Amino acid sequence: MKFEWKRPHEISENPQLFVGGASRFDIMQGELGDCWLLAAIASLSLNDDLLYRIIPPDQSFSKDYCGMFHFQFWQYGEWVDVMVDDLLPTYRGKLVYLHSAQTNEFWSALLEKAYAKLNGSYEALKGGSTTEAMEDFTGGVTEIISLKDAPGNLYSVMLKSLKKGALMGCAVETSSASQREAKLSNGLLMGHAYSITGLDILRNGTKLIRIRNPWGQVEWNGAWSDSSSKWDKFPDEKKRLDVEFGEDGEFWMSYEDFCRSFTKLEICNLGPDALEDDGESTQWVTSLHEGRWVRGCTAGGCRNFPGEHILGEPPLPPPPPTDTFWVNPQFRLILEEEDDDPDDDVEGCSFILSLMQKNRRKQKMKGQGLLTIGFVLYKVRDLKDQSSSQTLKKDFFLYNQSFARSKNFINLRENSQRFKLPPGEYCIVPSTFQPNEEADFVLRIYTEKRAETGHTANLNILNYPYSNPYHPPFIIILTNIIIHPLGFDEESENDRKFKQLFDKLTGEVCWYYVCTLMYVGITFVPSFDFLFVPLWDGEIDAFELQDIVNSVMKKNAGVGKFDGFGLEACRSMVALMDVTNSGKLDYEEFKALWVRVRKWINIFKKYDKDNSGNFDTYELREALSNAGYSLSSRLYQMLCV
């Protein structure tokens, strides 16, 4: 099929953006497999305030017409503008994709084109979830409810959500691609997206739901359908609900039949930046946090994935599934105020948690599909040795069970779930299912009452006195570590011994003295090589420090392959420890440097678990944690890049 791109005035003699306002009947699906998008547009058409935020109404084909139209969509925390020309794909003079029942109305076709541009192409819109479009139209957060396990108060939840301006959709899920769009005996289509356009309770207590097929045809044929005799018993209700029979894709059905016939319900709850019909903001309190999973750094995967076995060690029982999980980004949630809903007997704090991966549809054409994502919550209020701002360490996940979690890990853009938990402080850990999968993400928290949220970033490292962005990163690490030099107390025997060795070092130095100097209190077999470094002024400069450090480290540190410190690194060490500004290190300064070097050697040996002589990113993170650092995920990513 060869398309011809035409402007609306070439398709119709009197093109209009809207004809008599927007209606759910303006959405007629074309040849593109994007029923998920059309179902969301049909729901959007029920709320003028939402619709006109997406499509500013001050546009037309007459006044100030320039062949371009302006749209707005929500994208991961902000509203973005999308401009498109009005050239539309046609075949034999008719629109190929989304179109209105009115041949001279073009708002729906232009909206589809703008959304295709947002996502990269029309092709990118093939196949998807209604929740994606609902969120991009409203900035809301969607919860997916399995109707097989529908809660007893679901209809009440739907009424409450619709009153708040929520958008809703439903579907009959399929188990294979061959079942997609297959028609069932009751008239419903499998694997097809429907929009929920209304709810009502009749005077006899019957709960009804109004549903629309974006095809504009093929409807439910059971009870309360267009052909059902049940309407004959309620002519007044039929008139009140403005029920009209016709092949328009819209139908009514009972709530009981709805739960039996459909398998999935999607509710897009609006945030405070979306408006209801009365122009007032909704009741949700929202917080948004951005993060990133980085391979080898913050992409730890779910709890099912331990780290690799240490080479050379005997086989051990399967380790706890937390060897890499703990490196995932962490976020803190503090719930203090319980709900005050008089109709709800369950005490607790209600909130919806949404984890959304960013920009995956745009990368669909590059073969990068959606990742499988989920999240886990831990209660930390009673953890005495952790403050509310600290990142939880590996040991916490070894000895504490999760308090709540997403129902499953799913390969959708968003994984969200409603919770009701007791007041307290919680840690949220979002992750991909597999470790080392990279993606940017957004974590949103919707609460009915105000709550405190934030990233568990402890940035105290920035307050240490020697932090300097111009120093090499490893020098920053050496400087910022808090040292408690046990074994070198004032006037101790070790202190006097250290001073004696330093005095010897500033004359001529042999390996025995240097090694004893570094490893005071540690049994060591020195080399019999001799190194002579004349230091007649009682101080050590950068050249002398380089010779000493490299000679000792290469032969006796036992840390694997070591190529040696460069002169600039040694100059930086001298500059950092030279508190007297002499350009050299005296005894006290040199002692402080060696204490730090010794501490770092011990840490390196402990956490270089595979004895490779190098840290992988996970070993590095454990080493930094042991050294007293609590780094934010962002800062850790910068160190690993």
TrEMBL record:
The keyword Amino-acid biosynthesis does not apply. The active site is at C35, H192, N213. Transmembrane segments: none annotated. CDD domains: Calpain_III, CysPc. GO terms for biological process: proteolysis. Residues 595-630 form the EF-hand domain. One of its GO terms (cellular component) is cytoplasm. Keywords: Calcium, Hydrolase, Metal-binding, Protease, Repeat, Thiol protease. GO terms for molecular function: calcium ion binding; calcium-dependent cysteine-type endopeptidase activity. SMART domains: calpain_III, CysPc, EFh. It comes from the Eukaryota. The keyword Amino-acid biosynthesis does not apply. Residues 1-271 form the Calpain catalytic domain. PANTHER family: CALPAIN, CALPAIN-A-RELATED. Belongs to the peptidase C2 family. This is Uncharacterized protein.
